[in-house]
Amino acid sequence: MGKIAQQTIAPGTVIASRFEVLRAIGKGDVGVVYHVRDKWEGGEHVALKILSRGITTNEEAVKRFRKEMIAGNQLNHPNIVKSYEYIDYGELQAYTMELIDGGTLANILKLAPIAADEIVKILLHIVYGLEAIHSRGILHRDLKPENLLISRDGLIKISDFGLARLKDRSSMTLTGIMIGTPKYLAPEYLELGDYRESSDIFAVGVLGYELITGKSPFPEISDISQLLERFKHPVKEPKSLISSCPATLNKIILKAIEVDPSKRYQSAAEMARDLMNPSARGKAIFFQRFAGI
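-> structure tokens emitted (293 positions)
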């Protein structure tokens, strides 16, 4: 079991007498994801996410990891990564899931230019998945480029439910611990520990702003104690940075990142309806991101 517990497992290693490692796909905060061949299922290719060795002794972390698998298993939607089976094998804690090996949204953010209709398609995929998540009473709470995977047929799929929770469960105000990625966290959560559906939508708005402009809508703050200060700065409209941004898309993004949650989209379905407006796509104009910004 010693090799299994390591952070990086060599190709060819067989895990739990069942999974042959082909390659590492990615590494996150709590573990590593591998492309493996399941010898018990006729050589089926799946992804295997393994909880890091240093975390397996943390009972709370293991519970959260198991909850992540259960959430992904219960949500059956084309824009959500499907999880299959939990593996508890000695000191190994892992689970199998749908193999998505087309990269992440983080890869797309490095590209330029991106067509308006492509940006709208990406955002629609995210809000469709988010709508399914919210319909089950779940809040994701950690939407970021690294958690948005891309299938080979171009679907954006939401992954990593390790920080997700049911709407009526405790929040930061009870635990005293901030969770999530600060760059994408809504102001009401940072200030009051209040996380709601529109807080997930705020993260989508930040992602959309980055796709259009290549920049974050709010100043980058390294000091966590000053995170709320960044919301006091006026946001530059995407269209003021990228003149070819369609006016409708500009308006959608600004509504999604409203600092006042009551002025924001209250549901993913509401945001999807606006994104479906043909005027949001413009005329497939290519944005010259980063040029002259």
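The two ends are 52 Å apart (CA to CA).
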